[in-house]
Amino acid sequence: MPGVITLIKDDHKTLESVFKKLEKAEPGAIPGLLQQVAELLIPHSKAEEQVVYPAIKTTVPDEGSDVDDGLAEHHHVEHTLQQLLDADPEAPGVDGLIAAMIGEVRHHVEEEEQQILPAFAKSASNQQLSDLGDRFTAAKEQALAAMRSGT
To answer: Which string of DSSP letters, residue by residue, matches 50-104?
Structure first.
């Protein structure tokens, strides 16, 4: 099983590929792409919040405020995503809301990949990263199952 940092970065890459499609999408394709974003992003965020962020705060206390910022960004992006899922894709302002959401996620990913995760990688053991990878994957699967069942 890959370490948690590899798993997080892989999720970021997958999400970015959907964002690129979403940025070019015709209105009819937007709801399906937004659903893909939701099924990638929400379980990823929940797993980070449950498993990864507490470990980072314990292992690298100096990253605590950045982790708290990341948590706030997760909640804001999820709120924006829900607005988009509920909106008519051809409604005025939807394209701007999509661009804002994508921009916020890209900013969040950059902070994680440039600051938080490298600091964590330096301080955590390989065993800890591997164990967190297992727990992160399990938490994502559980969150996705809960989403799909509506619980």
So the answer is: IIIHHHHHHH-GGGHHHHHHHHHHHHHHHHHHHHHHHS-TTSTTHHHHHHHHHHH
Residues 61, 54: Cα–Cα separation, whole Å: 10
CA distance 8 to 3: 9
The encoded tokens of residue 117 equal 């995760």
- The 8 Å CB, 24+ separation contacts for 72-78 are 73/104, 73/107, 73/108, 74/45, 74/48, 74/49, 74/108, 76/104, 77/41, 77/45, 77/101, 77/104, 77/105, 77/108, 78/41, 78/42, 78/45
Q: Residue 112 corresponds to which tokens in the numbers above?
A: 């994680």
pLDDT of residue 34: 97
Over the chain (151 residues), the average pLDDT of each successive run of 10 is 90 98 94 96 96 95 92 95 95 94 96 95 95 96 92 68
- pLDDT score of 1: 55
Query: Contact at 8 Å (CB) between 141 and 68?
Result: no
